[in-house]
Amino acid sequence: MSNFKVAVQKRTWSPFSQDGYQYEREALDLIGAEIVEIDAETEEEFVNGARDADALLAVGRRMTENVIKGLDNVKVIGLSSVGADTVDVEAATTAGIVVTNVPDVFVEEVADHTLALALAAARKLKLMDRLMREDNWRSSRVHYDGTPRLRGQTFGLIAFGNIARAVARRCQPFGLRVIAFDPYVSELEMTSEDVDPLGFYEMLKQADFVSMHAPLNAETKHMMSTKEFEVMKETAIFINNGRGPTVDEAALINALQANQIAGAALDVFEVEPTPADNPLLAMDNVIATPHVASASSRMLPETRRRTGREIASVLQGRWPRSAINPGVLSRAGLERWQPYPMSRGPNR
Q1: Residue 336 lies in a domain
Q2: Predicted pLDDT of residue 81
Q3: Rounded to an integer, what distance in angstroms lies between the CA atom of residue 172 and that of residue 313?
């Protein structure tokens, strides 16, 4: 008989299921927690199977208000991602359920991908690759008319969280000036990273690259739309490695077709997988990748291990390392776990 039940939506194609949740179980087996797959087509079926669960692994199903209200015993919902847009966090908070995430596991990967896309777009690598394959060697050079050198340009960041800060540090060796908009981060935090804080529209006006790093919520959905693309420079490149719905995709397509901006580099889309006939995929001035910015050989195993540890911590009555809704922690009766100082541990 297990001590705890951790419910998860059953998915036949999921790598989580195929390997028997081996990474999550590294922590969960130690506390006698059993992972139970719920074979459900509807929310009602999922709730019926998960009603008595102690925790949810938020994979394969949106944890909506209806799902959360139907749960009798859940103490924690574990996410293997930075964003929490697949969970109704407000409903979870009302129910006293902790929602954990992994905000720092793949910061470096996403920052690398952001710079890779920016450089690829600036140097027109998609177009150059096509021309080479079409044996248009000599004609390729004319496409660089009016293309400025990278050094001295301005890189704008929408939001200034962990990933954006890592991007800023990567920009500086290239000689880029970095500016950012984030109403929730102090100017001192930005200037300490050699980043100039600006208002939203002033940042859009000045930037040669605009990189989206905002989380998805009611405030940020379609944060970039028609007006915002009109404000940007005609020579500017827009980059999104964050959340697709923060951008009004129809407005971005119109801006590119009307030459209001010079190009885009996208790892995320409003609808995923994005349809093969998406106009963005046919444009030479758009670099596109399939939501892989965080991918590396380390990323998936480590995010899954971390999710298991976070769920195990809450089930044992301890604070997790990261919670989307930290106000719930004290209400849930959890103890704040304090590790031993490195200089004064139990064996020192």
Answers
A1: no
A2: 87
A3: 39
Residues catalogued as catalytic:
243, 272, 291
What's the domain range around 77? 4-103+297-331
Confidence of residue 342 (pLDDT cuts 50, 70, 90): very low
Residues 138 and 157 in one domain: yes
* Same structural domain, 120 and 268: yes
Distance (Å, whole) CA 77 – CA 88: 11
Q: Is 122 helix (H, G, I), strand (E, B) or coil?
A: helix
β partners of residue 209: 155, 237
Look at the block and give the residue holding tokens 């991908």: 113
Cis peptide bond upstream of 273, omega within 30: yes
pLDDT, tens digit, 9 for 90 and up, residues 181-226: 999 999 999 999 999 999 999 999 999 999 999 998 899 999 999 9
Residues 328-344 as b or e (16 or more Cβ within 10 Å = b): bbeebebeeeeeeeeee
DSSP string of 148-164, one letter each residue: PPSTT-EEEEES-SHHH
Please give the full DSSP string across 284-342, using - where no structure is assigned: TTEEE--S-TT--TTHHHHHHHHHHHHHHHHHTTB--S-BS-THHHHHTT-B---PPPT
Are 323 and 263 members of one domain?
A: no
Number of domains in the chain: 2
Is 138 within 8 Å of 343 (Cβ atoms)? no
CATH number, domain of 246, equals 3.40.50.720
Whole-number Cα distances in Å, 162 to 59, 130, 159, 219, 291: 23, 35, 9, 19, 18
Q: What SS3 class is residue 61? A: coil
How far apart (Å, rounded) are the C-alpha atoms in residues 175 and 177?
7
